[in-house]
Design a protein that fits this description.
Blueprint: E1 4-5, E2 25-26, H1 64-80, E3 81-84, E4 87-90, H2 101-117, H3 121-138, H4 148-165, H5 168-185, E5 206-207, H6 208-225, H7 228-244, E6 256-259, E7 266-269, H8 274-291, H9 294-311, H10 330-344, H11 351-363, H12 391-400
Antiparallel strand pairs: 1-2, 3-4, 5-6, 6-7
Helix pairs in contact: 1-12, 2-3, 2-4, 2-12, 3-4, 4-5, 4-6, 5-6, 6-7, 6-8, 7-8, 8-9, 8-10, 10-12, 11-12
């Protein structure tokens, strides 16, 4: 993701924290495209020419949480899902453009969340069509993409597609691209970890979005392949994160570390962002399930508590608006991993808070039942981008899981 200028008001209300912003900016990870971005609209079609979006269908006995999640998902799919010839993608805005690579990965994960909440052949086929769209536009090898975090997001989507469909093509694709990104991005600089961007000028930052996401990807591969080697990689990435970008006293997950311009030291960006908290929690949860080491469980609970007690405003997760729009969908990433962590480990102390956020989001949907990134005010009726409309859907789907 490109450098994004943001004013301090994005993190207003967190005055109790010491926030270090390098050169007045926040490096918000997740690339907006690179070389492939120029062709990001090649899949786009007018809404009228696209096949109808498959809808999540339910029985009459479905629980209220499941019905609400299905309504939110169906509204999203009507607005942004486009398919033709067995290939599908999510558009950037209703009927226009294609969501860029890393956002497409997260929107595919949203569909995977929907399938896990209420499995159906139609949703499974939608996952297949979306992955067909990815391989048609980007191929099976993503080496040309310079943002390593972008690759990790799509690896996770592909690994989950394998888990849900059994198609080993997705697993092979995830493994190949993880190996490519890990080999080129890992270095002993700054104590270890993966560089955010690859290339001669890219070794300027190591961050949570690359390393926590890579730890999740490695843990997923370790499970799917029954591989100790990938589990060791996941443990190593997490250990570096915990030592470098985690405050064990508070549970805050710091954004990134960079060499100083003079090369004589380092600068840590301590801006709190929900997706950093979420991916750290996700990595901790997967490693706890794999190793049963209680430190992972303790870290996850503390990071979740920090998000709830410090980052939420009036109990509601922050809108995280601003910049180039990349922040708008961060709460969905947090929700996916935080709710999953709590439920997997039968932790109920956060349930009321999760439900409060879901109720706030649902109550502010617009006439099309789309929900924007600010869950404290009614979503505007003019079309918003799909990324900004995705977070609430993810939260609702996670709460609907059996």
């Amino acid at each position: 993701m490109h450098r994004v200028k943001r004013r301090s008001k994005v993190i207003a209300g967190l005055s109790a924290l010491t926030v270090t912003l390098a050169a007045g900016s926040v490096l918000v990870a997740c690339g907006s495209g690179g070389p492939a971005a120029a062709s990001a609209t090649t899949l786009a079609q007018p809404a009228s020419s696209a096949s109808p979006a498959p809808q999540q269908t339910l029985t009459g006995t479905a629980a209220p949480e499941v019905r609400r999640a299905a309504a939110a998902y169906n509204a999203f799919a009507r607005a942004y899902y486009s398919s033709s010839g067995g290939r599908a993608h999510y558009t950037d805005t209703p009927g226009a453009g294609t969501a860029v690579f890393w956002r497409q990965a997260e929107l595919i994960e949203m569909t995977e969340d929907a399938y896990q909440a209420a499995p159906s052949p139609a949703l499974k086929q939608q996952i297949v069509a979306l992955m067909n769209g990815v391989t048609w536009q980007y191929g099976h090898n993503w080496r040309r993409r310079t943002w390593n975090d972008d690759i990790m997001w799509m690896i996770i989507a592909a690994a989950r597609a394998y888990q849900l469909t059994g198609d080993r093509t997705y697993l092979a694709m995830a493994k190949k691209n993880f190996d490519i990104a890990y080999a080129r991005a890992w270095s002993p600089d700054l104590g270890g970890g993966l560089w955010w961007i690859t290339g001669a000028t890219g070794r300027k930052q190591k961050n949570v979005t690359t390393n926590a996401t890579a730890a999740i990807a490695a843990a997923e591969l370790a499970s799917a392949l029954h591989s100790q080697a990938y589990l060791t990689k996941a443990e190593g990435l997490y250990a570096w994160l915990r030592k470098t970008l985690y405050d064990p006293r508070t549970g805050a997950v710091w954004d990134s570390i960079s060499p100083t311009k003079t090369g004589g030291g380092t600068v840590i960006n301590k801006a709190p962002l929900t997706y950093n908290q979420g991916t750290f929690i996700g990595a901790a949860g997967l490693l706890y399930q794999a190793t049963h080491q209680k430190q992972y469980l303790s870290d996850g609970i503390k990071a979740l508590t920090f998000t709830k007690d410090v980052m939420a405003r009036g109990g509601v997760l922050p809108a995280e608006a601003g910049g180039n729009g990349n922040l708008h969908g961060f709460k969905g990433i947090f929700s996916r991993w935080a709710v999953g962590f709590a439920h997997q480990n039968r932790i109920t102390t956060f349930d009321q808070w999760f439900r409060l956020n879901a109720a706030a989001a649902w109550s502010h949907r617009n006439a099309q039942r789309l929900i924007g990134p600010d869950w404290t005010q009614t979503t505007p009726t003019p079309a918003m981008d799909s990324w900004g409309a995705s977070s609430a859907v993810v939260l609702l789907e996670l709460l609907a899981r059996p």
